[in-house]
């Protein structure tokens, strides 16, 4: 079986993505997770460029890695200095890694207009740098920056730069689409040409400016590259780098090419979400293979066919990458969707088409009014159980009042009072909050806590408001989505009204009742 070595550059290239800033602890955590996935190489950063990367290389030595080798990254020496006297080169040596990745100029435009040196001087910079590092006992990978652009415009010179790198002792020559502008046919042709002239293993490093990075990486591997670079979730400068998550899944599942174990492949979705969280980035629902929507089915025709044979609308088994199938319910759903979702939510509909139609009609009517159940499955479960008369309210609202007060030179305060009947008792409580919804939430919990102590472990994790008919101005109907969380997981609920407090109340009540319903079932 053909095998490809994976090289992760999330900690350097990924850190250059807009909105991402890793602490040293963040980088160590990500490195540990990537190592567990079975990646061969982890690029730790650029020693000498900043104190953070130097600290990382000191601390990573204390971290036991079972699969990956950490590499340091840097450039060829400066034009007017020897490699042995170059401060950046010496900083690379101080990082004390077995492998050092050096990038150099390939495109004659960069040599002449950016470095402002002669073409021959650039070749000397490449050779001197690699030879010096090899003489110090280092394994060297050479990143041929802008290789594809350079090869198109001046193939003879571009090839000469990588030939010099090979002759100087580089173990791997990595061809880079640094501007991210190549298409697969050009990549395949170029790699094929270069492979016939370069004997050491070839690698691919693609950026995503044309949304082709993963496809170009796969094409390069099919043309002969055995080393692939990328970042988790495709994080990186501008439009990002090749998404290593998608590369792994395509290599393993589509092409049968070895890169990580089948067991580790099942951790792919979890690793993707973990790195997103550490990066303080939203995990994209529509990310191929590992996103929440990657195997989500909404259209009634699709669901009906997929339930009969999953291959009809799924290109693979989602469990292979640690993901799962989801059935979404909306006004587009059919009876098959309702039946599948009811079964998933432990609502017994049997094969009763009348029951399914009743629920389907109810959902369609409510979605027409502005509800959105595919984003609020906890509310959907309660709706189904109520429609089947399988749900008994845990409490009953008598009334509530919310007061928002603003005094001169003081911030706005919110206070809620509430009366609820719970287990035959009338509870009347009041509570302050950061805002009216928070005050209402606090007052309701205060009234219920004696009867349902488990509510203490639940909290609101997110709150979203969408205006549904903007032309109505301040009288517009709004949809409120609330995400709640406890130690066992999180869930979303929805409310709709012209009054934002009423919409919030609906979502809030569903959230608490879902929590109590789940606790009752598990208890």
What proportion strand?
A: 15-25%
CATH superfamily of the largest domain: Aldolase class I
Note poorly predicted spans. none
Number of domains: 3
Report the CATH C-level class of the largest domain: Alpha Beta
Describe the main β-sheet briefly: 8 strands, parallel, barrel
Cα-atom radius of gyration: 29 Å
At the fold tier of CATH, the topology name of the largest domain is: TIM Barrel
Q: Please name the CATH architecture of the largest domain.
A: Alpha-Beta Barrel
**Oligomeric state:** single chain
Helix content: 25-40%
pLDDT average, as an integer?
89
Observed structural traits:
3 domains; Double Stranded RNA Binding Domain; 18 helices; alpha/beta; TIM Barrel; three-stranded antiparallel β-sheet
Q: Could you characterize what this model shows?
A:
The protein is of the alpha/beta class and 523 residues long. The protein has 3 domains: 5-278, Aldolase class I (TIM Barrel); 296-369, no CATH class; 396-522, Double Stranded RNA Binding Domain. The protein has helices spanning 24-37, 51-60, 87-94, 108-115, 119-135, 147-153, 155-168, 184-195, 213-222, 244-254, 262-265, 268-278, 300-308, 335-344, 353-369, 377-387, 436-448, 500-522; strands spanning 5-8, 41-45, 69-75, 99-105, 139-145, 172-177, 202-206, 227-230, 296-297, 326-327, 396-405, 413-422, 425-433, 459-467, 478-486, 489-497. Helix 1 (24-37) packs across helix 2 (51-60) and helix 17 runs parallel beside helix 18. The protein is elongated, with a radius of gyration of 29 Å. The relative contact order is 0.07. The model has no long low-confidence stretch (mean pLDDT 89).
């Amino acid at each position: 079986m053909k095998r490809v070595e994976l090289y992760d550059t999330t900690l350097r290239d990924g850190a250059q993505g807009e909105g991402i800033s890793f602490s040293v602890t963040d980088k160590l955590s990500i490195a540990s997770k990537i190592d567990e996935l079975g990646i061969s190489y982890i690029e730790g950063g650029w020693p000498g460029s900043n104190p953070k990367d130097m600290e990382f290389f000191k601390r990573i030595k204390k971290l036991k890695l079972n699969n990956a080798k950490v590499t340091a990254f840097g450039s060829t020496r400066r034009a007017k200095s020897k490699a042995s006297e170059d401060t950046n080169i010496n900083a690379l040596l101080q990082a004390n890694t077995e492998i050092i990745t050096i990038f150099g100029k390939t495109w004659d435009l960069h040599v002449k207009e950016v470095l402002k040196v002669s073409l021959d001087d650039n070749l000397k910079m490449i050779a001197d740098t690699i030879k010096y590092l090899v003489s110090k006992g280092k394994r060297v990978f050479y990143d041929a920056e802008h290789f594809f652009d350079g090869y198109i415009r001046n193939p003879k010179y571009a090839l000469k730069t990588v030939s010099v790198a090979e002759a100087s002792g580089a173990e791997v020559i990595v061809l880079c689409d640094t501007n991210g502008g190549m298409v697969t046919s050009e990549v395949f042709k170029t790699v094929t040409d270069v492979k016939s002239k370069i004997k050491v293993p070839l690698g691919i490093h693609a950026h995503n400016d044309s949304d082709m990075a993963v496809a170009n990486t796969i094409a390069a591997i099919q043309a002969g590259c055995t080393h692939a670079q990328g970042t988790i979730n495709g994080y990186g400068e501008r439009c990002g780098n090749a998404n290593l998550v998608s590369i792994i899944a395509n290599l393993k599942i589509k092409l049968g090419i070895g890169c990580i174990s089948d067991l580790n492949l099942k951790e792919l979705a979890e690793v993707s979400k973990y790195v997103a969280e550490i990066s303080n980035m939203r995990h994209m629902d529509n990310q191929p293979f590992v996103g929440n929507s990657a195997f989500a089915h909404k259209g009634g025709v699709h669901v009906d066919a997929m339930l009969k044979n999953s291959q009809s609308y799924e290109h693979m088994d989602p469990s292979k990458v640690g993901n799962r199938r989801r059935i979404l319910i909306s006004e587009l759903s059919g009876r098959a969707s309702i039946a599948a979702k009811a079964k998933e939510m432990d609502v017994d509909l049997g094969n009763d088409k009348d029951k399914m139609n009743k629920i389907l009609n109810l959902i369609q009517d409510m979605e027409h009014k502005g509800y959105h159940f595919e984003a609020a499955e906890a509310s959907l479960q309660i709706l189904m159980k109520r429609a089947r008369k399988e749900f008994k309210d845990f409490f009953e609202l008598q009334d509530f009042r919310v007061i928002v007060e603003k005094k001169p030179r003081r911030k706005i305060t919110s206070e809620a009072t509430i009366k609820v009947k719970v287990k035959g008792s009338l509870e009347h409580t009041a509570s302050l909050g950061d805002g009216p919804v928070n005050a209402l939430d606090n007052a309701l919990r205060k009234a219920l806590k004696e009867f349902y102590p488990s509510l203490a472990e639940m909290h609101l994790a997110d709150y979203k408001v969408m205006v549904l008919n903007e032309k109505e101005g301040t009288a517009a109907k709004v949809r409120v989505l609330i995400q709640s969380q406890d130690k066992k997981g999180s869930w979303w609920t929805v409310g709709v009204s012209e009054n934002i407090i009423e919409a919030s109340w609906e979502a809030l009540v569903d959230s608490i009742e879902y929590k109590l319903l789940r606790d009752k079932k598990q208890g």
